[in-house]
Specification:
By secondary structure, the chain is mainly α. A three-stranded antiparallel beta sheet has the order 3-4-7. Strand 1, helix 1 and strand 2 form a beta-alpha-beta unit. The longest helix is centred in the N-terminal third of the chain and has 16 residues. It is elongated and about 110 Å long. The chain binds one RNA strand through strand 6, helix 7, strand 11, helix 12 and helix 17.
Length: 479
RNA sequence: GGUCAGUUGGUGAAACGGUUAACACAUCGCCCUCUCAAGGCGACACUCACGGGUUCGAAUCCCGUACUGAUCACCA
């Protein structure tokens, strides 16, 4: 059994969007499931569309995701070069195209666009280009080539019969050959067309499983015709359904839709993003949804890739990101959130205590800032927020309660969440209040908010005794 | 327009022709509780785009219709 080799072949034209990343992920998983190789190949034949720094984005994204490639422009390998423009320079494509001509499987064509257009007009709807250049004699062709007349190389296609191929996802697909045009292999500038370069590269790199978007489904028969012309083995095809923005549109960078980089900036973790997108268009056999990359590789099964475009649901990603945050090792979690905490409240407070307070409350890192900004100081608020149904409080009652709270806290010796809570709870009992009736006004006084992370006593611990008493005093004055 | 493909709740989705059509997100209740979360429990598709057919039995198989998408370049 041949070693599985898959490839991810992006064009360096900008940001890495989610659909693209998912294709890379699937290619990686398919390779790793069987201990195969995952190869990165940069498709930069369209020099005009290249974007500065785009290659680095590709490297970085793969790295951040843990999608380590075994071969590629930056890590080398035995099948290089891994950059298409380099392969072009060495004349690989041109050589193979001419070889096909020599074999009688392709032909040289001098037609101009106008010639083709003319035929299209004449034939109407069921257009099928009949290339007059196929009738040219060898000598004439040679003469015109020698004279420097520009030409392209087109594949020969017999219009009779059908071509079919098996796709692991979509099953067997058959088309009639007369619907297949005699595609250009080598352009008049001597560069290969994208499709041709792809076939050559995939074959030369021993790619066993071609993983790509389902927009290639209709051109796959043409690919196969090239493989057959050379007498090469046809790879396994795995066409993936698209990741959609909504019912009608695919996710795309052109629309400014979420790219991987954007999601990181919004406070999502790479592992969570990867886990989530794995589930867009693929379903594991178990009911479980949380998988590490290694676990995904073990569980992955091409047969369970779906055929329908899946809508990217940021809400579910958000939930899953929260699961990842909550499942983290304590120390790693503290390290993760510390920069976000220090960025908004500085280093005056214990970032670990704040981390504890927000632990169950954040789904994304970017929520931290707003959640804890009150530690810096209480913002202006309306007295009406002292009114709370559950606590049965109103501004009037809050004032008397805060007085009790203040007196109680004043006498607390060792200052921590537990001691604060205990003494307040005792006081509440003595006054026959429910705990919440004591705590809620205190929370508002300390945070200036009706909703705050951690609970009143945890906030008090973080603020420290002096600051807590000060804030309660201010609140009383305000009432 | 030709060709190819797809269609299960708001979303991701499961289902070897026989289940009350899983599970998860979201939503809505309830419980817990020092607010909000987190956690626990529960509700949520009288039905699988529609119409025929095959079958004792269809979301599952066949045919047709509708709708959606992809593709028809010397772009990648």
């Amino acid at each position: 059994m041949k070693k599985v080799r898959t490839r991810f072949a992006p064009s360096p034209t900008g940001y890495m969007h989610i659909g693209n990343l998912r294709t890379a992920l699937y290619a990686y998983l398919i390779a790793k499931k069987d201990d195969g190789d995952f190869i990165l190949r940069i498709e930069d034949t369209d020099q005009g569309r290249l974007v500065e720094g785009a290659v680095d984005i590709i490297y970085n994204t793969l790295k951040q995701c843990g999608l380590k490639h075994d071969e590629g422009p930056d890590v080398g390998g035995n099948y290089g070069p891994y950059v298409q423009s380099d392969r072009m320079r060495s004349g690989i494509y041109s050589r193979y195209a001419h070889q096909l001509v020599d074999m009688g499987k392709a032909h040289i064509c001098f037609c101009k666009e106008e010639d083709i257009e003319k035929q299209r007009q004449e034939q109407g709807d069921s257009f099928y280009f009949v290339d007059p250049c196929k009738l040219l004699s060898k000598e004439e062709i040679q003469k015109r080539v020698d004279a420097g007349e520009p030409y392209v190389i087109r594949l020969n296609v017999e219009p009779e019969g059908t071509t079919s191929f098996d796709d692991e996802v979509y099953g067997t697909i058959t088309v009639e050959n007369k619907t297949l045009d005699e595609m250009v292999l080598l352009k008049s500038d001597g560069f290969p067309t994208y499709n041709f370069a792809n076939v050559i590269d995939d074959h030369l790199m021993d790619i066993t499983d071609v993983v790509r978007g389902n927009e290639y489904l209709s051109s796959t028969p043409k690919y196969n015709l090239i493989y057959q012309a050379f007498g090469w083995d046809i790879p396994r095809y795995i066409h993936c359904p698209p990741v959609m923005k909504d019912e009608h549109q695919k996710l795309s960078k052109r629309n400014g839709d979420a790219s991987f980089q954007d999601l990181l900036l919004k406070g999502y973790l790479p592992e969570a993003i990867l886990n989530y997108i794995a589930l867009l268009g693929w379903a594991p056999e178990e009911e479980r949804e949380i998988y590490s990359l290694d676990e995904l590789a073990k569980a992955f099964n091409v047969k369970r890739i779906g055929t329908t475009g899946a809508i990217f649901d940021i809400e579910k990603l958000t939930w899953m990101n929260g699961v990842y945050i909550r499942n983290m090792e304590k120390e790693a979690y503290y390290e993760l959130v510390r920069p976000y905490i220090e960025e908004t409240v500085g280093t005056d407070f214990d970032s670990r205590l704040i981390g504890d307070a927000i632990h169950d409350r954040i789904n994304t890192l970017s929520e931290i800032k707003d959640m804890i900004s009150f530690f810096n100081g209480v913002e202006e608020y309306d007295a009406s927020i002292f009114t709370n149904k559950k606590a049965k409080t109103d501004p009037e009652l809050a004032k008397t309660i805060l007085k009790e709270v203040y007196d109680c806290l004043k006498d607390v010796g060792v200052w921590n969440n537990e001691t604060i809570f205990t003494s307040l709870a005792e006081k509440a009992k003595a006054l026959s209040y429910k705990n919440i009736t004591m705590m809620y006004p205190m929370q508002v006084a300390l945070s200036g908010r009706s909703v705050a992370p951690g609970g009143a006593t945890a906030i008090a611990e973080i603020l420290g005794k002096d600051e807590s008493l000060k804030r309660i005093e201010e609140a009383m004055n305000r009432l």
